[in-house]
């Protein structure tokens, strides 16, 4: 019976069959038979036309209904926005609950529709944020301590993420947690430049490191396993972006202090940035973790190019400056193409030529 797959997957399977045949795992006859069983799915223009016509009809009906009931819709919006904040909060919470219920129901019925299911949960996240903001307006005392709302958002998102086993909501929970951390330390410092002697990039280096440590310690826990990769990605993102900013601005609290700082004064942060990137690459190679390896390589090059811009932008002719950039990116691109984009055979050839 033929096995129907798309063109991209068919190319991958055929490359695997050729490699297995060369290694003697498959006989030429069996490889030919398996190859003949592959049926490449062509693009279904007929189905596209059918769905496009359906969407067109729905859009026309929606446009007509919108014209006929525009004044009714506007009065409804006015009544909602003119209501008390607590009423708006309750309305947004109901909308959020509707999206969550709808998204979870569709996730159970059609788990293969990942993107549309997550889109519904995302709309629920937005409605939840609107509800929390209205709660803040309802109970605002004028203290300016709005970081409490971000902490409340984190708690709500975390509970929902565990309840629905949703990585998307968990990512928003960690984003809210990071936002709370930044605004809370800002509030505690009187919105000054420093908190316990640390500027914002320095604080988030510690925050990202703490998140990575928590990820490592909870890696074997059953309750945290579903969110392991999302938590690792957010921790690496916080950590490396903060390190990058720290390598540019240092632990200075004012632009004037930073402007008068020499390159050597900021070099220590760039060295720390480079060591952290190298450690991430080493971790990725040792434990076969593509995420830490990818973050390490990416931010290692970001560190190099950032220092290149800092040191040579004002002291090198722009033609030479961009020529060096062009050559470096060309070398990186061709090397990456050779290793990752030309398939297993070309990768093997590239390794042989080393």
Radius of gyration: 27 Å
Q: In percent, how much strand structure appears in the residues?
A: under 5%
Helix proportion range? over 70%
Cα separation of the termini: 44 Å
* Total count of strands: 2
Biggest β-sheet: strands ordered side by side in the sheet: 1-2
Q: How would you state the average pLDDT, rounded? A: 78
Shape: globular
Summary keywords:
disordered C terminus, mainly alpha, two-stranded parallel ribbon
Structure characterization notes:
With 354 residues, the chain is an all-alpha fold. Helix content is 80%, strand content 2%. It is built from 16 helices and two strands. A two-stranded parallel sheet has the order 1-2. Residues 341-354 have low confidence and may be disordered.
Sequence-ordered SSE layout with sheet pairings:
Elements: E1 3-5, H1 7-23, H2 28-36, E2 38-40, H3 45-68, H4 70-81, H5 85-109, H6 114-138, H7 147-164, H8 167-188, H9 200-217, H10 222-225, H11 228-249, H12 255-259, H13 263-287, H14 290-312, H15 318-341, H16 343-352
Parallel strand pairs: 1-2
